[in-house]
Batch of 2 targets.
Target 1
Amino acid sequence: MDASDATILKLYKKDKNQGLEILYDRYKKYIYTITYHYTGNKEDALDLTQEVFLSIFKALDSFETGFSMLPWIKRITINKCLNHLRDKKDALSLNQQGEDGYEIQDLLPASTNTEESTLFLDTKKLLTTAIYALPPEERMAILLRHMKGMKYEEIAKSMGVPLGTVKTYLHRGRKHLKDDLSIGGLWER
Amino acid sequence: MICNLDKNLLQDLLDGVIDPVEKLFVEEHLKACSECRQEINELKLLFWDLNDKSSYDLELPLELDHIKNALLEQSLEPASQSTFNSLMEVQRKNIKSARNNMKSASKFLDFVPGIKAGNALAKESLKATPSALKYVSKSLLKTGKLLKAK
């Protein structure tokens, strides 16, 4: 077990406030990065981060000290993300604004303004937008594999799906991304 | 020439999860197939961007600290829960003692002649009544019977 996880739990038993605070500071970046790249906007990412921590805090009393917290936290985060998007499936609007004030319709590639949009938006933004356009499960698999560097088996366990399904999500997701980014003019053909 | 190679193998090759035999096969195939060479070059660019950690860099918003404070307050003040629990406990004790008081207060009625038949009737009609109310109504009925007898 990770030493600092054990320390956090010990501290939590002695002083709840301090234990929870350190736990929050330790994992907030990990959780927020996933929720942000998964939802594609700050507000939803913050909502989800709050939900994830609420679940963690509630269940911490029954958490067994012999285990590492990260896999447990990953599972909670992934579940909250997948459920969140299921609830909000139809709520996406082309006028919805991203963190930088861009509307989604500005970010969509179009044949007439390819050059302009390539100049306007850098690779990072195009990639973030293309990832956000993926179906939820593909998006989550891609983020866990490439952003978090998780192994296939670990992704399968965290998402609660068979290994073959993870491979399918990754294959399809990357194909979608490649098509999107080629059309977006990111790469010269 | 149309290439029939499963393009997923190219992804697996780049991701380092390809079977060693398939790897040899794909590498040989790439020497001869320009379509797959084009495909794998595009995939390499994608993998480069996807694996580049700086693609995911972001600034943590200040709101995360507000959320922390709100969550800590909420978690450390289980006041609503414990107040609710202790209120319930007090209520439970009150009801219990009220029931006991009523029992002893109406004890004398057990010795009044003719009351047993009335009790049977009351029991029948009170079957569906919640227990706390049951004792109240029961003693009321008993008193009614007593008055009638007088």
Target 2
Amino acid sequence: MDGVHDMGGMHGFGAVPVEDEPVFHEPWEGRTVGLMIATAAAGLRQGSIRPGIEAIDPATYLGSTYFERWAASVESGLIDAGTLTSAEIDARAEAPEPPRDHRDDTNADMVNWLKGALINRPHGPSGDDVPARFDVGDRVTVKRMAPVGHHRCPRYIRGATGTVTRLPGGWPHASGDGPPEATYTVRFAMTDLWGDDAEPGWLSIDLWERYLE
Amino acid sequence: MSDSHGHHPKPKTPTQQRVEAIEALLVERGLITSDVVDAIVETYEHDVGPMNGARVVAKARVDPEYRARLLEDGTSAVGELGFGGAEGEHLVVLENTEDVHHVVVCTLCSCYPWPVLGLPPHWYKSFAYRSRMVREPRAVLAEFGTTVPDDVEMQVWDSSAEVRYMVLPLAPDDVAGRSEDELAGLVTRDHMIGVVR
């Protein structure tokens, strides 16, 4: 979907807040990351949290912090998967209470598997064998479109023409539908994106084949 | 400054209450265990961070064959040092030179090479960085105190699909006199994102 998360090129957000901050400001932020990974690994919700983040209404998205958006998406994912209901989360949040009856609250096998997977998981197939319509050096134009579902084609490159510089491999499209599809690293001149007054230089981005012509 | 209010816990935000409710419900039903969540938090607070990427960079400084492998296949090369996994399944390393400067952003969310850099810093996730880096990189770099000479080509990378990017920063002049540990100590997270040259 073309939501407010698609920020490339927008004006008005001011200076970058360059100050260093801890990985997690508050313990609940760490719990949110832990729940995001653990619930996906346990099959309690569908893997990617991005579609749920993009579905947050624009005013809420802009008014919330990064981990608040994650938390909202983990919650909506658990509800969509039928793991929890909105009503039971509401009720528990209004009457907070630590977990009851959790004598077996340990799972050493999953801890060990996850620790290994997060730190050094053998990487999956690169998708090198996926057929590709374009090759390095080809000039490609990003289609004009208004896709409804989850995608990874920002607005600021649509209609622009660039050059394929690399074929990283093929993977199922971000929306999860269909077989692996070729992706391309495409390089654009800054002036082709932002006009003659642009800072000189180049912008490279990885794009699925369906976005290109 | 008075610390007299420090004994009163801050009121919980609605999000914090909901996250705690979700964890409690899942644990109670035996769907997850808290030690699994603890392990993930500990991993990203202590085990995975820019010190990993700094080791990769330092090895590339002292071992030209490793450097060549790193630039050819980043995923395999960082895997040689035991780094890999979530958000680093397909890693491409971009080499800064006297003629080219690379810098990495994710405009759509905050894609970032976790196994070598850890979780992204606050500013990398900010709307200002996400919106502006692709349009006015030199102006953004100036806010980090970084000036890239006009005759150096600017290359901005918007992480949008499956590949995650890390920058191999310019080497110091005196590499020959330094140990790999010393070299690792000179490399910062900001060098490997490309906001510092």
